[in-house]
Amino acid sequence: MMNFDISRRFFLIGAAAAAIVPSSRASALSQAEATKLIDSAVGEINRVINSGQSASSMYRAFEGIFVKYADVPTIARSALGPPARSASSAQMRAFTDAFAGYMARKYGKRFRDFAGGQVEVTGARQIKSFQEVQAVAKLPGQSPFTVSFMVSDRSGRDKFFDLLIEGISLLKSERAEIGAMLDKRGGNIDALIGDLQRAG
Q1: Could you tell me where the DSSP H helices lie in the chain?
Q2: What residue ranges define each of the domains in the chain, with the CATH number in brackets?
């Protein structure tokens, strides 16, 4: 069981996140570059959650933020887990697209409850070959809580590949949920893709 309020778990998942180990090469990504990336991401998140737009518009906006700032192929592959090794290229492309939409719908539904909330970047530090950008999330009526974006340039562009809330990897949580969904479908990746296209 997770030891933080469930609403916190949903707050920043427009862009989402299992522990993924980046390559061991020295990172060319600086703290300033990583901070700039996440400053831009949280700025867009803050604007959407306080925009008052319709639910469907919010879902599209969050999916756009996810695709823009997250290393979506890496995140999707990690969420699928070991079955990704046996999936075809076409299946992985379809799964990645379905996963991005699923995440936006699933967590976007919770964002409407957080009007007036803000996320503020507070610092960054290098951890091995990637940067951890730290932030504080402030929701109305709740105590502030920490959010950390794990940022790497291993994909060829500066992207975040995991998101931690109070030390808990949200992608790792999604990996468990996706694994359970796949098990219920007898390991059929195509069936999982079809369900993800409608789920959330």
Answers
A1: 6-11, 31-49, 55-69, 72-80, 89-111, 170-184, 189-198
A2: 7-17+26-198 (3.10.450.710)
b/e for 133-151, b at 16 or more Cβ within 10 A?
Answer: bbbebebeeeeebebbbbb
Q: Flag whether the pTM goes above 0.90.
A: no
Tens-digit pLDDT string for the chain (200 aa): 444 444 444 444 443 433 333 333 445 789 999 999 999 998 998 888 888 888 788 888 988 998 999 999 999 999 999 999 999 999 999 999 999 988 888 877 766 666 777 888 999 999 988 999 999 988 888 888 888 999 999 888 999 999 888 888 878 888 999 999 999 999 999 999 999 998 76
CB 131 within 8 A of CB 28: no
Give SS3 for 83: helix
